[in-house]
Specification:
The structure is a homodimer of 162-residue chains. The first copy, chain A, has 162 residues and is an alpha+beta fold. Chain A has 7 helices and 8 strands. Chains A and B meet through helix 3, helix 4 and helix 5 of A and helix 1, strand 1, strand 7 and helix 7 of B. Chain A binds a DNA duplex (30 and 30 nucleotides) through residues 23-24, 26, 28-30, 32, 34-35, 99, 101-105, 107, 110.
DNA sequence: CATATATATGTCAAAAAGTGCCATTTGGTG
DNA sequence: CACCAAATGGCACTTTTTGACATATATATG
């Protein structure tokens, strides 16, 4: 499937994940999914998410349709090439299906909670076809670092036509 | 059999092994299999696993159906080529059948336990048609090393369209 | 061959983790 | 300010995991 085909899909009026939300996770790992995001999910008529580790210290959440695209990509990766295996172990291996309960919450599995070091306040960031879950302090520190050298970031992005 | 044929099988709603779980192995080598994985096994209507050594310092576990695929592949390997023989000795030769008990536990045979250096906390990683069992410290060290240069990993993966 | 030692298995119970439901709080909107 | 929807907190209940202990089986040793 070409990239442009995917892109078309998003331009045809489909709802996408966007925006920043700060929600709290409790001691047992329950976290409310922002209602706007539940709206987005409802267009796939699904009440579950696939949650997995990002390469960054945060989690990624997908609707199952989009997760399957990831799986398809992963299945074409090598079983011996190092980068490929690392990706499969880390990203594919840690994926878990999470049911959204009647009050719009999920239980974030313990190992994922630990990985992203989710404490209390979580930042939920919509990124078109998926969203990320960060511990808010970690996110703040990360962005502070990322924006420390804004000029070279501008240069890189400008090269991409932005 | 082509890769795409295998892939089709997974898209037809079959449950697959996925997710990271941290369980403890006791002094006698007993280890709980995550209940989600037992669900996956139940679709094959089986209560035993084939466990063997990975090329990495961890174990691999298969449902018997999928193990047979491995055996078929192995039987097509050369009897004289070095890599083939090593693979057969190491992976096929060390395979053991483990019964899941009424509480969902297996006894990990001593030789395999030693190989993977399983101490207390084990990480169990679902990888579609099999799962891996790691000592958690070894896994962390492995991933830390693997992710040490995240930028080049990102670059490599980006080249694959990820 | 009898005995000691280690290894394996079965069962029980405590502890930890996950789930469902209801009540309260929060925050936005008219 | 009153209303509504969204988010959170609390509690009871279920399932899963773990630890402990007793019994059984195997292996080694004198």
């Amino acid at each position: 499937m070409s990239k442009s085909a995917i892109w078309c899909q998003w331009t045809l009026g489909a709802k996408v994940f966007k925006g920043h939300y700060v929600n709290s996770i409790n001691e047992k790992g329950r976290l409310s999914i922002p209602s706007k995001f539940r709206d987005v999910l409802s267009q796939w008529d699904t009440d579950h998410l696939i949650i997995t580790k990002s390469l960054d210290k945060c989690l990624m959440a997908f609707a199952s349709e989009d997760w399957e695209k990831m799986e398809r990509k992963a299945s074409s990766l090598s079983t011996v090439r190092k980068a490929d295996i690392i990706f499969k172990r880390h990203v594919m291996g840690s994926a878990e299906e999470c049911q959204i309960d009647s009050q719009g919450r999920i239980l974030v599995p313990a190992s994922l909670r630990d990985y992203a070091d989710l404490k209390k306040k979580c930042l939920i960031v919509g990124i078109v076809d998926r969203f990320e879950i960060w511990d808010i302090e970690i996110y703040d520190a990360y962005m502070k670092e990322a924006l420390k050298d804004p000029e070279s970031l501008r240069t890189e992005l400008a090269e991409l036509g932005l």
